[in-house]
User: Fold this.
Amino acid sequence: MKKIKNLILLALAIIAIVGMLSACGQQAATASAPVMTVYMQMGGQEGDPSTLARTNGAKAAAAALNIKLVEQYSKWDSGTMIDQFKQAMAAKPDAIVIMGHPGEGAFAALVDQAESQGIIVTSGNNPLKNIQEKYMDKGFGYAGANLYGGGYVTGQAMVRAGLKAGDKALVYDIWHQEGRKDSPTGMKAALEKAGVVVDVLDVTQEVDTDVSKAIGILTAYLEKNKDCKAIGTQHGNITSNFMKVLTQAGKKPGEIITGGIDLSPATLDGIEKGYVSASFDQVLYLQGYFPVLQVWLTKMYKIPGLNIDTGVGTVTPQNLADLKPLIDKGIR
Assistant:
């Protein structure tokens, strides 16, 4: 009975907190001027499969909280991300949302400088654990998947799709980047635990910027490695090209097991037609929404940085139907 009473009190407390934030958001939204200005790094190119849902989430949060949002797109280039941070800092906004791809060393001194100027900084998509620990009390949080865990879950899904001990698989991903390589490392670990022989290939910055170049690289790999049974990646734009790769290589649906990430329309099509076996769902919409909410909460209520894991599992042909309308709208 006491346990039930505690659960009821907890539920009432959550309802009260949500109601308070909703009321504050509505009040802010009716103000004549934005309550704060936020510069936010979105990642790739505006509207691309690995960026659209994140942008939509950020815009929704900004609209709800009456925030002026300035979007920054980098084509996933780490140097551009650093330049964008400097540009944002020069504009003296209330907050900056960064992506951690350039790494701790590249960002540490810049975040120190921004914090000394009273600018709230938080991160999404790729964590910066040491910087987060240093400035958590000032609002530096993380909204994104556990990179190693997400890769591991996807590798497990590939095994369930039909891989067995002794099969050969390729993990094609960004191995050269600090932090970011945790994703393919997790995938490789899951595959090797099942006895799969894993080959690795690095995604260069050139391919990261223009992912169409990955199609020729992967088709050439399959031609040279006819014993390859699977291809895995934690790169959303490469995942969205899996069906093109396999059709150009003359492969039938299911002949090559593939595991990827994100839920672009092209990835959805690949899952439906059997060319994509599983795709990790890191819920990009929340990776846009939560960082904007984070900096607003810090500015308004001194809320410290929150660590929010947005990864929820994989999407497969068996569980896709309910998500399709939301994917088509750029929300999931």
The chain has three domains: 1-30, 34-143+284-307, 147-280. Confidence is low (pLDDT under 50) at residues 1-20.
